[in-house]
């Protein structure tokens, strides 16, 4: 199993999750695990970048997309094929929301490789900090504006922002149990 540290780039304080995933996890499933661990809703295009790019390939974009099909490769195989990872680089990139606002860039670091036993042979989130930005908030800059507005009830845009994003938002809020409940639903 891989212990992965996943961090959204460009935001302070850092938004991150640590997850354990089996080495035979397809990248397409790793995408869904990351979505669940953070609380994203999987409505946008995404991509992994090792020394190759991997994403979801559909018939309509197969001729124009230069990425490889993420459904056909496991995490262990992608790591093994990445010559830079073999040369001791221990991270790769995951981007989410490639079409709308600037993509959410995540650095995924391989923290550890452990042997699974009968008690931990499935994906699980083991730690994290800070709330995941809402979908369609406008990337890093939009999120910074969102936090400034949603944490100030006296801001003129607070009522509209509150309604648009469904109520209160705690930028420091992270619930490990909720993250794992979302991951368990993937099984």
Q: Structural class of the helices, strands and pairings?
A: alpha+beta
Low-confidence stretches: none
Largest sheet: 8 strands, mixed
Strand order of the largest sheet: 5-4-3-6-7-1-2-8
Number of domains: 1
- Summed up, the helix count is 6
In angstroms, what is the radius of gyration? 17 Å
Number of separate strands: 8
Please provide the ordered H/E string of secondary-structure elements. EEHEEEHHEEEHHH
The fraction of residues assigned to DSSP E strands is 15-25%
The third-level CATH topology is: Structural Genomics Hypothetical 15.5 Kd Protein In mrcA-pckA Intergenic Region, Chain A
Average pLDDT confidence is 88
CATH class value: Alpha Beta
Helix content: 25-40%
| Ends apart, CA distance between termini | 17 Å
Which architecture per CATH? Roll
C-alpha geometry: globular
Per CATH, the superfamily is MM3350-like
Structure description:
The protein has 187 residues and is an alpha+beta fold. It has one domain (2-132, 174-186): Structural Genomics Hypothetical 15.5 Kd Protein In mrcA-pckA Intergenic Region, Chain A, CATH 3.10.290.30. It has helices at residues 27-38, 75-81, 83-86, 139-150, 158-164, 176-186, and strands spanning 2-8, 16-21, 46-49, 53-55, 68-69, 91-96, 104-113, 124-129. Strands 5-4-3-6-7-1-2-8 form an 8-stranded mixed β-sheet, covered by helices on one side. The chain is globular. The mean pLDDT is 88.
